[in-house]
Design a protein that fits this description.
Layout lengths: L1 E5 L3 H13 L3 E5 L2 H8 L6 E5 L7 H10 L7 E6 L4 H9 L4 E4 L4 H46 L1 H20 L8 H10 L9 H4 L8 H8 L1 H10 L5 H8 L21 H17 L8 H8 L6 H21 L1 E5 L13 E2 L5 E3 L7 H12 L6 E5 L6
Parallel strand pairs: 1-2, 1-3, 3-4, 4-5
Antiparallel strand pairs: 6-9, 7-8
Helix pairs in contact: 2-3, 5-6, 6-7, 6-12, 7-11, 7-12, 10-11, 13-14
The chain binds fe (ii) ion.
The site of fe (ii) ion has 5 residues, from loops.
Length: 390
């Protein structure tokens, strides 16, 4: 247990420090809030015991800062104060203090309050460990299910993994999606087609127009089957309802429930859009340049308009990424300042001369020309197309 004592009066500070060391705690001290704040930002503390009235930054201001900051663990705060009216105590607690001790300090009371704080800190640490354990198990369960889909059908597994990734990207672009929703939407993307497990394998590769009546019924049942599978685990229930809704459409013509746009959960709309996009790219084999046309046809009909616009943004980024990957092969003599190398340059014996992604300067080009003169590197090298002017 690491405790920080903040007190401007040297005698009181040493007295409290010695008492805590006697009780077996690891103790550090600061003379005011400013010094304490610097220490809190350079080492982890479990508890801060601070005087209220101090020069520079007082105890209330320090506690407010601690509560507004994003420390990885909860810090238990005890305010030491000579102000002991009801109003003073309320102000102290409102600033974020967990407890208070009034001056003059009774050392037995001080010891008891610190020990209560230490117990609460330990309980909080245990609860956090438990929470992290459950969280880890949650993600392991989702990945186990994703692996299961992949074992059943490799292509379907690949589709689900890509939809998980794209759903997360789309969710991050949407202003109405909170930070807490991100793992849920990613998991829903990864598992959206889990209800396909068990369908005849020939059915997966068929278009809906090629299915006979029975096959079509089976296919249409997969969102509900997915919901039933996931509902078995309490933690996965928020995902189950999204999986059920991943084939609902903006225009109300989706399945299984034919929900209106206003009834479809936002996260399900995101998963749906991610899945449609992935099918256009991988099943429809539509090139990235032609995807905006396909999306435009679905915008406001099958897909939510805002989410479709976000898909367009992501698609544009992909196009730019692909363009960045394209490169020319140029003679060393034709290199110009500003071009970026698309591959490492090594001597013929393999020694490293210049790494890929170096933006060439005139000095760099001279160095390469000199290397070429002594025949230690070849005549040609690769540069990214986008970095070549004119
Ligand atoms: Fe589906």
């Amino acid at each position: 247990m690491h405790i920080l004592i903040v007190e401007d009066d040297a005698i009181t500070r040493h007295l409290l420090e010695n008492k805590l060391v006697q009780l077996g705690y690891t103790v550090d001290s600061a003379q005011n809030g400013t010094e304490a704040w610097a220490k809190l930002n350079s080492a982890p503390f479990d508890m801060v015991i601070s005087d209220w009235s101090m020069p520079e930054m007082d105890g209330l201001e320090l506690f407010k800062r601690i509560r507004n900051a994003d420390f990885k663990r909860y810090i238990y705060l005890i305010l030491v104060t000579a102000h002991n009216t009801k109003g003073d105590i309320v102000s102290g607690l409102v600033s974020g203090a967990d407890d208070y001790i009034t001056k003059p300090i009774n050392m037995e009371e001080f010891r008891a309050r610190v020990e209560i704080g230490a117990k609460i800190v330990q309980l909080e640490r245990k609860a956090t460990d438990r929470y992290n354990y459950i969280k880890k198990n949650y993600f392991q369960t989702i990945h186990m299910f994703t692996n299961l889909i992949e074992v059943f059908d490799e292509e379907l597994g690949g589709h689900c993994r890509r939809v998980g990734e794209l759903s997360l990207k789309l969710a991050k672009l949407h202003p109405d999606v909170s930070e807490n929703d991100l793992p849920i939407v990613e998991a829903a993307g990864l598992l959206h087609d889990i209800g396909m497990i068990g369908l005849p394998s020939g059915l997966l590769s068929k278009k809906r127009t090629e299915m006979n009546g029975d096959e079509r019924q089976l296919y249409l049942s997969h969102p509900v089957s997915g919901e039933i599978i996931l509902n078995e685990i309490d933690l996965l229930r928020p995902i189950a309802k999204l999986v059920r809704a991943h084939h609902e459409q903006y225009n109300g013509r989706g399945f299984p429930d034919g929900l209106d746009n206003s009834e479809i959960p936002l996260l399900a709309k995101i998963v749906s859009a991610a899945s449609v996009y992935d099918n256009i790219v991988h099943k429809g084999k539509v090139s990235l340049e032609n995807i905006p046309d396909s999306l435009q046809r679905l915008r406001g009909y099958q897909l939510d308009p805002d989410i479709t616009d976000h898909l367009m943004e992501i698609n544009l980024e992909k196009i730019q990424e692909e363009e960045r990957k394209e490169f020319f092969e140029l003679e060393i003599d034709d290199l110009q300042e500003g071009m970026m190398l698309a591959g490492n340059i090594r001597t013929k014996t393999g020694a490293f001369v210049m790494p890929a992604n170096t933006q060439l300067t005139n000095n760099g080009i001279e160095k390469l020309k000199n290397c070429r003169k002594i025949a230690s590197i070849g005549n040609k090298t690769f540069v990214y197309k986008w970095s070549v002017r004119g």
